[in-house]
Design goal:
The protein is of the alpha+beta class and 436 residues long. It contains 16 helices and seven strands. The strands form two sheets. The protein has a five-stranded antiparallel beta sheet, with no helix packed on it. Strands 2-3 form a two-stranded antiparallel ribbon. α2 crosses α10 and α8 packs across α9.
Length: 436
């Protein structure tokens, strides 16, 4: 999202309104997941997300002065939540959470405590920063966070769906809860919410087309200028000596008196015609020279190819004669007066060159540089391309081992399924964890 923030701000500096859509596409999923964990009601979440992006689009140009664009983004998000806190509190359901999913674990806490948990463990806000936004005592916030940290083991005693590996601390639990929320949402409202938010914020113009999450898309440098086409080189042909003589005649004519100049002017049209004829002759000579050069190049290429072909034929003819000669000489080496020596010869051959035996051993397969990691979700698709629109190569389940072939810090990584006959594809790195 940091890269998309930078791209959006650069686009806005150039009055390109597509920057708004780029930022929206990069952030709406994270905004939705955090809002579900805090607010919990789907209809209220979608309305809150729309209102947040309306205000964000109006103030987006201010992000250029911030030291951290991502920190500025989430600061605006929680400022919006602070302004609507009493409205959200009034619409909260009084019924307790069922506790069937990781997200329901947060439902056991009040609204303000859920906000503090998400701010602290998902967006790394300190107690002082939380205090500055909500106007609460910093020591009180630290005390409440410590209480919730200690209460976590008691909240996770009962079985929770797809909770393996996420119950050690709040940071892992919130990460797993966000993934469950994202997997369970179809996001069919995305285009409608963006259109309404952009219209309300006064953003007009053509929206940016969605780009696939390819590696080139994220790494491409927007500051690189396109290459300019190279100019065609025109071959230079030396001027003929007649041109120099023609120039000398012109210089002599300039020294003539007025009467002679008038006569010379009368003949000017003929001189122009002669000059045009010279240009045509020069063009013709250039074409002849170019044709000769091309012909020589073709002859050299054909000759070299024929030479290589003849050498191959000679080699093929020499090889059979060589083998026949070896066959003729072979009996001479085997025949001898002493039969015992000929019988012992094959047995002594491997003892004479003991150093050559290691060459016959099979070569060890090169070790892979990939990192073996473990699948976290109960079931996960392995896709042919690094995006959710590509075809499914295979499926892996929780606990399966995969070999990561790329940097595991990327969002999409190439993996080889160890338990699926070595099938290769792409998965999101956030669904993998290191093997114990």
């Amino acid at each position: 999202m940091v890269l998309e923030m930078r791209r959006a701000l650069e686009a806005l500096k150039e009055n390109d309104l597509q920057g708004y859509r780029k930022l929206f596409d990069a952030s709406y999923e994270e905004v939705y997941c955090r809002s579900i964990l805090v607010i919990r009601q789907e209809d209220q979440v979608i309305e809150f997300v729309k209102d947040f992006f309306i205000e964000l689009f109006k103030t987006l140009k201010e992000a250029g002065e911030a030291e951290s664009h991502e920190k500025w983004f989430w600061y605006q998000y929680y400022q919006k939540m602070r302004r609507q806190y009493h409205k959200l509190l009034a619409n909260q359901s009084s019924s307790p959470a069922e506790g069937g999913t990781l997200a329901d674990v947060l439902g056991n806490f009040p609204l303000l405590h859920r906000i503090m948990l998400v701010m602290r463990y998902q967006d790394n806000f300190t107690a002082g920063e939380i205090s500055a936004i909500f106007g609460l005592d910093e020591e009180k916030i630290s005390s409440e966070l410590n209480k919730m940290e200690k209460a976590l083991p008691s909240l996770t005693k009962e079985p929770i769906e797809d909770s393996e590996g996420y119950l050690d601390n709040w940071k892992l639990l919130l990460l797993g809860a966000s993934r469950q929320v994202a997997d369970g949402c179809s996001f069919g409202w995305v285009d409608r919410i963006y259109a309404e938010a952009a219209f309300a914020a006064g953003v007009t113009g053509t929206s940016a087309a969605k780009k696939k999450d390819t590696f080139e898309y994220f790494v491409a440098d927007v500051d690189v200028e396109p290459e300019k086409p190279k100019k065609k080189v025109v071959p230079i042909v030396e001027e003929e000596p007649e041109d120099e003589e023609y120039e000398e005649e012109e210089d002599e004519d300039e020294d003539l008196d007025g009467d002679e100049e008038e006569e010379y002017d009368d003949d000017g049209e003929e001189d122009d015609d002669d000059r045009y004829d010279w240009d045509l002759e020069d063009d013709g000579k250039r074409m002849v020279i170019i044709g000769i050069v091309l012909a020589l190049v073709i002859v050299v290429i054909v000759g070299f190819a024929a030479f290589r072909l003849l050498n191959k034929e000679d080699d093929s003819e020499k090889k059979p004669s060589r083998t026949e000669q070896d066959e003729d000489e072979a009996p001479l080496l085997i025949k001898g007066d002493d039969n015992s020596e000929s019988e012992e010869a094959p047995e002594e051959a491997p003892e004479e060159n003991p150093e050559e035996t290691p060459e016959e051993e099979p070569e060890e397969e090169p070790s892979s540089d990939g990192v073996v990691m473990e699948v976290i979700p109960q079931s996960m698709n392995v896709r042919s391309e690094p995006n959710t629109d590509s075809t499914i190569v295979t499926k892996v389940k929780a606990g399966d081992k995969v070999e990561v072939l790329e940097d595991p810090s990327q969002e999409w990584v190439s993996v080889r399924c160890v338990d699926q006959d070595g099938k290769e594809g792409y998965v999101k790195s956030e669904y993998l964890k290191a093997t114990e």
